[in-house]
Design brief:
This is Torsin-1B. Keywords: Membrane, Transmembrane, Transmembrane helix. One of its GO terms (cellular component) is cytoplasm. One of its GO terms (molecular function) is ATP binding. By secondary structure, the protein is of the alpha/beta class. A hairpin with an 8-residue loop joins strand 6 and strand 7. It has 13 helices and seven strands. The chain folds into two domains: 205 residues, Rossmann fold (3-Layer(aba) Sandwich); 62 residues, no CATH class.
């Protein structure tokens, strides 16, 4: 009788574990779908000067989603983006648009300098591994965002490499996971390549993803992503190009409209003149030093002064 009682206890425990796992994986708060038409519409309406980021993001996400549907999300390795470019050129904005179109309930953003501030804390490797695995156990659909990866300490890189390797080897049976790494790494090289091609008479829109991949991979042993790259853990590198005066005008007008203000030419010009630009040798237009990052604050100042 004692053996029968013990068996029943263990049977009940196992049953509750199974039910819990099913609930965590399939409850209403753990579902997702990708609204690709909405993603394309938002890119076309609100993203300026980033034809490569637009096209690559849509095409790669589409392929990953189709692959996941064909396998019913089983035995699927995570998909890893690495966004590169100067400040204010749209890396965070594209990430936000992707999240809005994914309709995923579970995502986690890590701001590297704030959450991993010290360069010599060895526990970061275990901490990040534990954090990621906890989120995956809670829900099979997850997006992990790491901002300012160029400031990542070695122990964080080590932990990410370890957990990405385990996930690539299908540690979890049923998963749909996207990682997005954002950094300023190679931003100056991306800019220099663009300027050199514009000086040769080429159109910005004619520059290809493949051309910028060469820039990103050149001397990558000096970059934070070298070890992760060597293990083939990053699926796609996305270059973000510097923004010129026309793109910044679009950003100003968009921000004014969002704040219910008519974007008159005079107001747009005033705001534009308060931002910093430079003109590379041989190029016909000026480029912003801060992209669209400071636009919203400048717009607020002018709206307040008008009020």
């Amino acid at each position: 009788k004692r053996n029968n009682g013990t068996f029943m206890v263990w049977a009940i425990v196992i049953l509750f574990c199974v039910i819990g796992k099913i609930y965590l994986s399939y409850n209403a708060d753990c579902e997702m779908f990708i609204d690709f038409p909405n993603l394309e519409k938002n890119f076309d309406h609100f993203l300026f000067g980033q034809h490569i980021a637009r096209n690559v993001s849509i095409s790669t996400l589409s392929r990953y989603w189709e692959q996941s549907l064909s396998t019913n999300h089983t035995r699927l390795k995570p998909f890893v983006f690495s966004f590169h470019g100067w400040t204010g050129v749209g890396k965070n904005f594209v990430t936000k648009l992707i999240l809005n179109s994914l309709h995923v309930h579970h995502y986690k953003t890590y701001l590297v300098p704030n959450q991993f501030p010290s360069s010599n804390i060895q526990s970061y490797a275990k901490d990040i591994s534990k954090s990621i695995r906890k989120h995956i156990r809670d829900c099979r659909f997850n997006v992990f965002i790491f901002d300012e990866m160029d400031k990542a300490p070695p122990s964080l890189i080590k932990g990410l490499k370890s957990v990405l390797t385990s996930l690539k080897n299908k540690e979890f049976d049923n998963q749909w996971i996207v990682f997005i790494f954002l950094s300023n790494s190679k931003g100056s090289e991306i800019n220099s390549f663009l300027f050199s091609q514009i000086a040769k008479g080429r159109s910005r829109e004619d520059l290809t993803h493949g051309e910028f991949l060469s820039v990103l991979h050149q001397e990558s042993e000096k970059q934070w992503y070298h070890d992760i790259h060597d293990k083939n853990l990053i699926d796609v590198y996305v270059p973000f190009l510097p923004l010129n005066t026309t793109h910044i005008e679009y950003c100003i007008k968009q921000d004014l409209r969002r704040k219910k203000v008519v974007p008159s030419d005079g107001l747009v010009l005033k705001i534009l003149h308060e931002l910093s630009f430079f003109q590379p040798p041989g190029t016909p237009v000026q480029y912003s030093l801060t992209g669209c990052k400071r636009v919203s604050d400048k717009v607020d100042l002018h709206i307040t002064s008008v009020d």
